[in-house]
Amino acid sequence: MRYNDLWRELAAIYGENEAKAVCRTVLDDLFGMSLTDIVCGGVESLSSADTQVLSCAMTRLKEGEPVQYVTGKAPFAGRIFGVAPGVLIPRPETEQLCDIVAGLTAALPHPAILDIGTGSGCIACTLALDDESREVSAWDISDKALGIARDNAERLGARVNFVKQDALNAPHDTDRWDAIVSNPPYICGRERSGMHSNVLDHEPHLALFVPDDDPLLFYRAIAGYGCHALRPGGWLCFEINALYANEMETMLGDMGYRDIKTIKDIYGKNRNTICRK
Predict the structure, then answer these.
(1) Torsion of Cα atoms, 144 then 147 then 153 then 154, to 10°
(2) Percentage of the chain with pLDDT > 90?
(3) Domain assignment of residue 13, yes or no
(4) CB 178 within 8 A of CB 234
(5) CATH number where 218 lies
(6) R_g (Cα) of the chain, nearest Å
(7) How much is the pLDDT for 88?
(8) In degrees rounded to 5, what are phi and psi of residue 204?
(9) DSSP 41-73
(10) Per the database record, which ranges form the Release factor glutamine methyltransferase N-terminal domain (predicted)?
């Protein structure tokens, strides 16, 4: 088994450059193998047991499974988070949401922040680790996601209060949070044709999709909760579906929120919407 053979097996799925990058990620994450190690014959020098592990990993990759699930690791905001099938893989673009929340709450001595739909816990843990004065809580309806999020928090040393809670049936809290942050499901079924098969076939649909006739389902529920659960002046911060940015701003305005703003990402795409109680 050689490195060139490995990436060529994946080239039909990923293309040459990405196939090489995927193989290097697997070799690094599973065996601590650097590019120098690879060039010097590290793959050929693997033990029979490690060769079997690599063979199993390659089989999963050839079936279209995301490399993050195969290695059990995903980078986010300078840290490595554990991931597994059943939890959404953290995306680099979501790091911007953490930066936004941090900036909006920077002047508060001990801001209380809630992350709704925490998944792997990447947002909640990042906010808690970047400033230990923050009091961070996180909700998810999935027991599997909560288990992974708790494992990440424990391994990284993040103080986060995780709670099993359905965002569509939130409690009637009053003046509890300085900021609520969420990257909820926001992809409509009709958008599936434009998605990569490794996402459709492997990532949890519970964390991805909303009904075609109600694309703002989770945003409306979370914003409704925020109307009474946010403290006066508290912030609501969403990652959004760019297709519905205008509808999002209109809905938040109709619900009484102020200082509504949609923020573009580095690619010029509408990525996050913020507003204030």
Answers:
(1) -150
(2) 75
(3) yes
(4) yes
(5) 3.40.50.150
(6) 20
(7) 85
(8) -70, 120
(9) TTTTT--HHHHHHHHHHHHHHHTT--HHHHHTE
(10) 15-72
